[in-house]
Amino acid sequence: MKNFSIAKSRRLRSTPYTSRIEKQGVTAYTIYNHMLLPAAFGSIEDSYKHLKEHVQVWDVAAERQVEISGKDSAELVQLMTCRDLSKSKIGRCYYCPIIDENGNLVNDPVILKLDENKWWISIADSDVIFFAKGLASGHKFDVKIVEPVVDIMAIQGPKSFALMEKVFGKKITELKFFGFDYFDFEGTKHLIARSGWSKQGGYEVYVQNTQSGQKLYDHLFEVGKEFKVGPGCPNLIERIESALLSYGNDFDNNDNPFECGFDQYVSLDSDINFLGKEKLKEVKLKGPQKKLMGVRINIKEISLTGSKDIYDENNNIIGELRSACYSPHFQKVIGIAMIQKSHWEVSQSFKIQVNGNTINGNVCDLPFI
Amino acid sequence: MKNFSIAKSRRLRSTPYTSRIEKQGVTAYTIYNHMLLPAAFGSIEDSYKHLKEHVQVWDVAAERQVEISGKDSAELVQLMTCRDLSKSKIGRCYYCPIIDENGNLVNDPVILKLDENKWWISIADSDVIFFAKGLASGHKFDVKIVEPVVDIMAIQGPKSFALMEKVFGKKITELKFFGFDYFDFEGTKHLIARSGWSKQGGYEVYVQNTQSGQKLYDHLFEVGKEFKVGPGCPNLIERIESALLSYGNDFDNNDNPFECGFDQYVSLDSDINFLGKEKLKEVKLKGPQKKLMGVRINIKEISLTGSKDIYDENNNIIGELRSACYSPHFQKVIGIAMIQKSHWEVSQSFKIQVNGNTINGNVCDLPFI
């Protein structure tokens, strides 16, 4: 595939770590929440192998926060997500589909409950802040909505636990998955969650004190040599093999949570009030007509820049491939596709055009096994 | 400046013209409304000269539409903008700052009135659709809000009038600035406005019939040879020289319309209802404390990737430079900066660090003269 440069400007915001990752050899960016998100440091496959074996520090400042605080903040946050947050606890992260009045997805953030009246919505790539502002204004909610200065750095990979213990002490290894707490680095408290956009384990540091965060970034590389620490970023291969879905890639505002396999996060039976609840009841009653599934394709290489139609043996379109990569683990191309109900049978075979050739593939359940 | 690749994926949407512009030599992209927007075809200065002399066809599909229709559509659209639309006419475009409840800018679209109950908000780079959906839901407005399939191609430059006349006939030259009408191309009607993101004159074709739009794209190049038609895109130099402001670059959700010189679009004296009206009355009463101004800097080259602080002779920060380029017309670097009230005097001198050197510059009014 031909390479195109990214034209930088203030509108594509840099992060506090940009100058560091550029010295460390970042080669490609994507844009996420109007911000630079590193997408490659040379070979994605080499990075994938390193991530699965060692530890990486990622500049994921593009995972922006929408901070909602004030008397009506819990009501507004609940209105935006179909997941029941009535029993949510301070110090915990919650994966929460954000839904519009049509029952379709606006975003799929992790929501952090900082206090009874203070929340961070750690967003995927859409302007949830304006959705929240519109709702708050229309409902005359007593809330304050801002994008705070928070620039996340992620520490991911099997050796992330040892590296973080070396910096923050034993206590950080006791943090449960999707729990967060405050940890001291050279006199500055940092909010750190056990989370991250890989399945290799790790942490996310929600950096509010930029200067201390930059020092921490450098420190992790200084003391991490014994763990073979390296720079990295969310890895296309790892995230597809792990079936971590991506808003905008695998689903968007034309899809509903049942079509994306988010059933466990849709609390239709509770008496909580959220947008699209009636629409989602209808969808559930009728059953979704399409859903995200895995696919395996009998080739060794693919470079997907958009959706690609999938056909049955009679050349009828039965779905569309939305993300794909060569998987070293499965030794073929795998991907995530939206498949029509008529063709949900596992091992359903299909055809797809890649570089002018007709290739065969098979549908499978997610996650891949 | 070092070049970085853009990592393409479905999330960074391609347009119906992407394969064409890649054959025509696009070299750099930016991302705008989650979509590829071409940023350069080789030298930006060569493109600038060509645009000012001949005619270019631009893939600006990234200027997405938010379509608002239904009984309460006029009320919702008015609620979102501080510009009085009560006397707006079908067939006209209106430049309209979109304002939140704090009186700050959400976007600065052109709004097209298609019908008494149907509007297109032709947006700059933020998800206005979710702001509209939030407001509509909170206010229980009877409206339908969608992003329709509309992929704008712009025809810009002094010879755009002759080229478009050759394709669409005499009638298109009678279209007034910011007027729109429907014109036939090989049996398909296209909405065409006399508008565009340059000051060199031209049109924007709001393509709904993708196939016909692609044919039109090719046709413009076939019949445009006599006008030296070329591919192009919004040009950094031309837009700064013309003082065309860019949401995200020159201003954002931390700025209000008075700080951006949008006074003529703020209808505080009318009895219309819009968000942030009381806040903006306060701002007007007190007077803005910062505003966008032009700057001239005594160097021949700059490459801005973010804001850059501007200092007075005592090294106090007096503002920040937000966009800049070398201007062939002024034969020095010019730019757009947010300047604190204490230093609004025209020809105010300042200092700025560029590539480690301290450079002098002067403040001036916008537009540049």
From TrEMBL, chains A, B:
Keywords: Methyltransferase, Transferase. Residues 290-368 form the Aminomethyltransferase C-terminal domain. It comes from the Bacteria. InterPro entries: GcvT/YgfZ/DmdA (IPR028896), GcvT/YgfZ_C (IPR029043), GcvT_C (IPR013977), GCVT_N (IPR006222), TrmE/GcvT-like (IPR027266). Pfam families: GCV_T, GCV_T_C. Substrate binds at E204. Residues 20-269 form the GCVT N-terminal domain. GO terms for biological process: methylation. GO terms for molecular function: methyltransferase activity. NCBIfam families: PRK12486.1. PANTHER family: AMINOMETHYLTRANSFERASE, AMINOMETHYLTRANSFERASE, MITOCHONDRIAL. This is Dimethylsulfoniopropionate demethylase.
